[in-house]
Design a protein that fits this description.
The chain has five helices and two strands, in the order E-E-H-H-H-H-H. With 128 residues, it is mainly alpha-helical. The protein has a domain of 85 residues. The protein has a two-stranded antiparallel sheet with strand order 1-2. Helix 2 packs across helix 3. The N and C termini lie far apart (72 Å). GO terms for molecular function: transmembrane transporter activity. It is found in: Membrane. InterPro entries: MFS_trans_sf (IPR036259).
């Protein structure tokens, strides 16, 4: 068992560890790095990205259900955004692999144009 003392920068945090195994070394590294501003920045960025995803996943079926659809239909109608996200990732991988980003973007714009035309020509809101 050895005693590890850290640089003077960390002394204010009282970081001194007895390290006797691999796992203890990992715990010591986490505790040493925790008070760093960069750690909090990464945590904030991660939180800013994860909270909206989970909010959409959790509340979309509830909002659709409140629009008058049954619970089963609300669950089914909340799937397309996630399927679209999966498709977007696959298209991005394909466009990077073959280096054809321009035609891929033009295709996405064309599909969006068709969607807006369909939306504009609807007489009543809703499905069907």
């Amino acid at each position: 068992m050895s005693l590890i003392s850290v640089s003077p920068f960390y002394e204010g945090f009282g970081v001194v560890f007895h390290i006797n195994a691999e796992n203890d070394m990992m715990i010591a590294s986490v505790v040493i790095g925790s008070p760093q501003p960069v750690s909090f920045s990464f945590a904030g960025v991660d939180l800013a990205g994860v909270v909206p995803i989970y909010a959409i996943a959790l509340f979309t079926p509830t909002i659709i259900n409140e629009l008058g659809y049954s619970a089963a239909n609300a669950q089914l109608l909340s799937v397309p955004p996630f399927a679209g996200g999966f498709f977007t990732v696959l298209v991005g991988i394909y466009s990077d692999k073959y280096q054809i980003r321009g035609p891929i973007v033009a295709g996405g714009v064309f599909i969006s144009l068709i969607g807006y035309i369909v939306l504009y020509t609807q007489k009543a809101p809703g499905i069907g």
